[in-house]
Specification:
With 141 residues, this protein is an alpha/beta fold. It contains 3 helices and 6 strands. It is globular, with a radius of gyration of 15 Å. The two termini are 22 Å apart.
Length: 141
């Protein structure tokens, strides 16, 4: 059993590492409360990760709701006022974009942005992001 788990963890690591090289470039914007209800889990407050790193996604990712619960590693590439730092975050999809058409590939709450950014800085900005879907959620729970 232990060798099976070791193999599984190794495969997941390889998929996630390769996925980083094969990721997509898109945009991210801030969106604020209220966050409930969501298209994925309705009024369930427990759907939100405790770190506040969740996302509402556009049609390109939504996949008729199949995106619910998927996790993406995101890294800022560029934006106004040079907002990017050398770090990435993992976000979980909990909702579909509120606007038609969507204003960005992913909409994120304030907590998901860089700690050094003010809410005024991110509220009207669109950031260019690199993202890749994480195939194994086991590492990021």
């Amino acid at each position: 059993m232990q060798s099976f788990l070791t193999t599984l963890l190794l495969l997941c690591s390889c998929f996630d590492i390769l996925g980083g090289a094969l990721g997509d470039v898109g945009t991210a914007r801030y969106y604020g409360p209220p966050y409930l209800p969501t298209k994925c889990y309705g009024d369930d407050q427990d759907q939100f990760p405790s770190d506040g790193h969740f996302a509402a996604v556009s049609n390109g990712i939504w996949d008729n709701g199949a995106a619910c619960g998927r996790r993406y590693r995101m890294r800022c590439i560029s934006g106004p006022q040079r907002p990017c730092r050398n770090r990435s975050i993992v976000v979980e999809v909990v909702d579909f974009c509120r606007y038609n058409p969507c204003r960005a590939t992913m909409a994120l709450p304030f907590k998901a942005f860089e700690p050094s950014q003010s809410q005024d800085m991110v509220s009207g900005s669109t950031l260019n992001m690199h993202s890749n879907r994480l195939m194994c959620n086991i590492f990021y729970l």
